[in-house]
Write a structure and sequence with these properties.
Blueprint lengths: L15 E2 L3 E3 L2 E8 L6 H13 L6 H19 L5 E8 L2 E8 L20 H8 L2 E6 L4 E7 L9
Antiparallel strand pairs: 1-3, 2-3, 3-4, 4-5, 5-7, 6-7
Helix pairs in contact: 1-2, 2-3
Length: 156
């Protein structure tokens, strides 16, 4: 069983809160977000702030919240399924993964002035994360980012 599969409820069952854990020097957050449940984005942000603990008021924590919100929103808006959000904080920094259940891989694009605020999520991730990527995962994909992994950013 992968860590993405642990703690998931039945498909379409809505939000499932699994207990957050601490494994060694790592702190872990895992949440399932129901299909089209955009109100869950705020819940994920609050849970991430709790996970980050004392550093939750830092500029890096603000970036983490922004990028997590973008990835979760993308997963909910661009798929007809829910998503699984996993955040891990350790000595190497923060890694956030958002798994959805649609195989189509996202690609950043340069939005036009007519797009308003639409289409900038992955561009923000690309610009602000120390590392990011997308990989296929079973029946879907995982979009992830890391902060603090290059040693220059503050520890979480």
């Amino acid at each position: 069983m992968t860590r993405h599969q642990a703690g998931l409820g039945p498909a379409g069952s809505g939000p499932v809160r699994t207990p957050d854990a601490q494994q060694g020097d790592q702190r872990l957050l895992r949440r399932r977000v129901g299909q089209a449940d955009l109100s869950a984005v705020g819940d994920i942000r609050r849970a991430l702030r709790e996970l980050l603990g004392p550093s939750r008021h830092s500029a890096a924590a603000d970036v983490a919240e922004l990028l997590t919100s973008e990835l979760v929103t993308n997963a909910l808006v661009h798929t007809d399924h829910g998503a699984v959000v996993t955040a891990t904080v350790g000595e190497a920094g923060l890694r956030v993964e958002v798994r959805d259940f649609v195989a189509a891989l996202p690609t950043p694009y340069v939005p036009s002035a007519d797009d308003g605020t639409h289409g900038r999520g992955l561009l923000l991730v690309q610009a602000l994360a120390d590392a990011w990527g997308v990989h296929e995962h079973g029946m879907g994909k995982v979009v992830w980012f890391e902060l603090g992994c290059n040693g220059a950013a503050p520890q979480f």
